[in-house]
Amino acid sequence: MNQTTSNQQPVTALKAGIMGATGYTGYELARILERHPAVEIAFATSEQYAGQTLDLLYPAGPALSLVCAEEAPLDGVDVVFLCLPHAASAPAAVAALEAGARVIDLSADFRLRDPAVYAEWYGLEHPAPALLEEAVYGLTEFARDRLPEARLVANPGCYPTSILLALQPVLAAGAVAGGRGPLVADSKSGVSGAGRAPKAHTHFVEVAGNFSPYKIGRAHRHLPEMEQALHDWSPAAPALLFSPHLLPVPRGILSTVYVPLAAGWSEGAVRELYEQTYCDEPFVSVLPAGQVATLAHVTHSNRCAIGLAPVGDTLIVTAAIDNLIKGASGQAVQNMNVMWGIEETAGLA
Ligand SMILES: NC(=O)c1ccc[n+]([C@@H]2O[C@H](COP(=O)([O-])OP(=O)(O)OC[C@H]3O[C@@H](n4cnc5c(N)ncnc54)[C@H](OP(=O)(O)O)[C@@H]3O)[C@@H](O)[C@H]2O)c1
Questions:
Q1: pTM to 2 decimal places
Q2: Phi and psi, residue 348, nearest 5°
């Protein structure tokens, strides 16, 4: 383990392991960590491609040797990133923690505090419920106080990252009207959000030239994760309607979020609230009045762009992120940086 204190660089490079390096988030993580000034990639796993190198799958990627999970040297690393499907992640987290590593899990396995809610939405008993209490929900901007001590970080989902960054200021400030209907998040995601394994509804012919909503209203698995955070910020938060759409682009998420404003919140006061919340944030930009967030503001970066458009007593927030970076691997590295007291933007600028 490296010796570090807050705001210091580690004396030697952190040793990082990537489990699930051949998936879209694993590959993006490998690219970020490869150029990170304070990290050395110690291993990268794949079950299907063990024995090969990552650049054979992704020609622009690093030539990392791939090993199967069983052969990953867990006890030789400081941090293990889990880029695995839910249910596969939890047992891998247990093994990595037992070996003495800290864990950043990109799956949904440790995002929900209540194992009964996990069972309801994911259709199985939680594989490691004893770890749920200590897992820190790593929406970095609002988790900095807990990250330095965390052994296990649950990286937020991609849609939730955009929607929660859009909603936190108004929820925490009590600016949302009670009794005037739900919060509404209308979101669009690029196809990499569904992962690399081919599925009928994400292959080229189904997606190109098409645009489709799916799991609309209150059916998507990211809903309980978002409502958990919203209730942490405001126990009286209204229900959330969440309508995701599949956008025929490779990457990026744009969420348009409709908020019923409490009485007395003028356009100027709302803008000041968001600007104050995010003025010191390296990765969250509140756009000038009249501008809306677009994918072009954020793709291939760890940024979240937020546009504000108050219309009478409704606030329309547009929030854009790159699902694979701020929505997954970039935020995971941002969390790692805070956990070890490394400059928060290291590897991500
Ligand atoms: N895609 C996104 O935008 C996004 C954003 C935020 C969070 N996430 C979450 O991050 C995780 C990874 O997502 P992804 O999009 O990168 O997925 P993906 O492209 O489908 O890749 C999955 C990876 O996990 C490995 N894998 C699959 N099943 C496994 C199993 N049973 N045991 C061990 N390894 C297994 C695969 O390895 P092989 O080489 O053996 O196939 C592959 O490396 C998921 O939990 C996802 O929900 C994704």
A1: 0.96
A2: -120, -10
Q: For atom 3 of ligand 1, which residue has the closest CA? A: 193
HEC sequence for 109-123 = CCCCCCHHHHHHHHC
Neighbours of 301 (CB within 10 A): 16
Q: Output the residue whose Cα is nearest ligand 1's atom 4.
A: 193
| Residue 189 reports pLDDT greater than 80 | yes
**Mean pLDDT (whole number) for 1-18:** 65
Q: Is 250 in the pocket of ligand 1 (CB under 6 A)?
A: no
| Cα 84 to averaged position of ligand 1 atoms, centre (Å) | 4
pLDDT of 156-168, one tens digit each?
Answer: 999 999 999 999 9
pLDDT tens sequence across 75-125:
999 999 999 999 999 999 999 999 999 999 999 999 999 999 999 999 999
d(CA 82, CA 89): 6
Does the annotation count 304 as an active-site position?
no
Annotated catalytic residue, options 68, 83, 158, 279: 158
Q: Which atom of ligand 1 is nearest to the CA of 26?
A: 16
Cα of 346 vs its chain's centroid, Å? 17
Residue by residue, DSSP assigns 25-89 as HHHHHHHHHHT-TTEEEEEEE-STTTTSBHHHHSTTS--PBEE-GGG--GGG-SEEEE-S-TTTH
* Distance in angstroms (rounded) separating the CA atoms of residues 279 and 130: 37
Instruction: Give the integer Cα–Cα distance in Å for 65 and 75.
Output: 18
- Report H helices in 89-173: 89-98, 115-122, 158-172
